[in-house]
Write a structure and sequence with these properties.
The complex is a heterodimer of chains A (82) and B (369). Chain A has one helix and five strands. Chain A has 82 residues and is of the alpha+beta class. In chain A, strands 3-2-1-4-5 form a five-stranded antiparallel β-sheet, with no helix packed on it. The longest helix of chain A is centred in the C-terminal third of the chain and has 15 residues. Chain A is elongated, with a radius of gyration of 15 Å. The relative contact order of chain A is 0.20. In chain B, helix 1 runs parallel beside helix 10 and helix 6 crosses helix 11. In chain B, the strands form three sheets. In chain B, strands 2-1-8-9-10 form a five-stranded parallel β-sheet. A four-stranded parallel β-sheet of chain B has the order 4-3-5-6, sandwiched between helices. Chain B has three domains: 125 residues, HypD, alpha/beta domain 1 (Rossmann fold), CATH 3.40.50; 147 residues, Rossmann fold (3-Layer(aba) Sandwich), CATH 3.40.50; 43 residues, no CATH class. Chain B is of the alpha/beta class and 369 residues long. The chains are: A alpha+beta (82), B alpha/beta (369). The interface between A and B is large, with 39 and 60 residues.
């Protein structure tokens, strides 16, 4: 039920502070594109950002630096450095 | 960075698995509960369960929302489906859960009830426009990850003046049932693999009370094999060192404080209430009901529903399995009268249910039972 996947932002419509206008992004994963809602996303995205999508809504805008740290720690752990 | 391929690196997973084996070997045996149904499924699907070291026992918790929906709520849903001019919209995994009279929405649909499986709750607003004579009832079943999407849909319905849409809310929140389980002296666990996407909303800090009051090690994990392995290594190290804390192995998605924008939207629409859980009974303040201000979107109020106590299916051990006390193979119905093709209990229906996962992947207890 709590499945969510990362998808890349192609287009954005709406304003983060205006809930009366639809807050929408078009996102893509390997050629499959989809319109999703931005109403509950934690940080308003830019085109090119990746979002975590759950049930047609973005719940998180990914930060590439955090992801690098995340994978970096895994690699260090795998190599017994920490 | 595409956020998927990097974390699906088999050679990295293999090295992490070796490190997990080394780490577990250095300490005493321990038990970890994976709270989230999506974790349960990911652990089976990747084959990780059969590769875990001796000395680490993983038990499944109450984190499959369909599985913990009570029999009386399922009966109420069946009653709503049979009212003229209602159209039930739901996420697909609830479709085949039988109520106490052994009938499911799948059956009701075959008998003419209007039932639509949707991808997003927002799809209900289109259904409402397309079917102006029907009251669209969305079955709100889910945890903190899903609830904000329902809250946003209710606000969008209000902004668009859509009147023929309502939500049947059996939404639940995660920390209270964990505390209820930890208060049970029969359940002996040393650590929690905390749910990644629930934590994206509530934040990793939400587990600090479990560390402070119960001395439990808590690690938030993602859903790729490498994510789960990293979280298990951190749990093993923490438990081995006897220094429980909250650690976050899913920092690319989960922050300490969570998603305030989503949490604010949830508290605008919903208020905490006591909620009945299958197998766990009524847990104070563990559910969410729609606030009076948005009462016209509350299916329970619009249809004047009342709940009747309902019996669990005879012989079904879902309750004990959800509490982590029994394995599916200990249930007398498992793989005999209860199979995915003809399920009796909800843990066999939902793809994230422990029984369904055991059945599909030929699960055996990793203690060798």
């Amino acid at each position: 039920m709590c499945l969510a996947v990362p998808m890349k932002v192609l287009e954005i419509a709406g304003d983060p502070n205006d809930f009366f206008r639809a807050q929408i992004a078009v996102v893509d994963m390997e050629g499959v594109s989809k319109e999703i809602r931005l109403d509950i996303v934690d940080r308003w995205p830019q085109v090119g950002d990746y979002l975590i999508i759950h049930a047609g809504f973005a719940i998180h805008t990914l930060d590439p630096r955090e992801a690098e740290i995340n994978i970096g720690l895994m690699r260090e752990m795998a190599d017994n450095f920490i | 960075m595409k956020y998927l391929d990097e974390f699906r690196d088999n050679s990295l997973a293999k090295r992490l698995l070796e490190e997990l084996h080394d780490s577990v070997k250095r300490g005493n045996p321990f038990r970890v509960m994976e709270v989230c149904g999506t974790h349960t499924m990911a652990i089976f699907r990747s084959g990780l369960r059969s590769l875990l070291p001796e000395g680490l026992q993983l038990i499944s918790g109450p984190g499959c929302p369909v599985c913990v929906t009570s029999a009386s709520h399922i009966d109420a849903i069946m009653e709503m489906a049979n009212i003229a001019n209602t159209r039930i919209a739901l996420f697909g995994d609830l479709f085949r859960v039988p109520g106490s009279n052994n009938q499911s929405l799948a059956y009701a649909s075959s008998q003419g009830a209007k039932v639509d499986i949707v991808y997003s709750p927002m799809d209900c607003l289109q259904l409402a426009c397309d079917n102006p004579d029907d009251l669209i009832i969305f079955l709100g079943v889910g945890f903190e990850t899903t609830t904000p999407t329902i809250a946003a849909t209710i606000l969008a319905a209000q902004n668009s003046n859509i009147e023929n849409f309502a939500v049947f809310s059996t939404h639940k929140v995660m920390p209270p049932p964990l505390i209820a389980l930890l208060d049970d002296p029969e359940l002996q666990i040393d650590g929690l693999l905390c749910p990644g996407h629930v934590s994206a909303i509530i934040g990793a800090d939400a587990y600090q009370p479990l560390v402070d009051s119960y001395g439990l090690s808590c690690v938030v994990g993602g859903f790729e094999t490498t994510d789960i392995l990293q979280a298990l290594i951190l749990l093993s190290r923490q438990i081995g060192a006897g220094k429980p804390s909250v650690e976050n192995a899913y920092t690319r998605v989960v922050s300490r404080k969570g998603n305030k924008r989503a949490a604010n939207m949830v508290s605008e629409i919903f208020q905490p209430v006591d909620m009945e859980w299958r197998g766990l009974g009524v847990i104070p303040q563990s559910g969410l009901a729609i606030r009076e201000k948005y009462g016209r979107y509350d299916a329970e109020k619009r249809l004047d529903m009342s709940f009747k106590a309902a019996a669990e299916p005879k012989g079904c051990r879902c309750g004990e399995i959800l509490k982590g006390k029994e394995l599916p193979t200990q249930c007398p119905l498992y793989a005999k009268r209860c199979t995915p093709a003809s399920p009796i209990g909800p843990c066999m229906v939902s793809s994230e249910g422990t029984c369904a996962a055991f059945y599909k992947y030929g699960g055996v207890d990793n203690d060798g039972c």
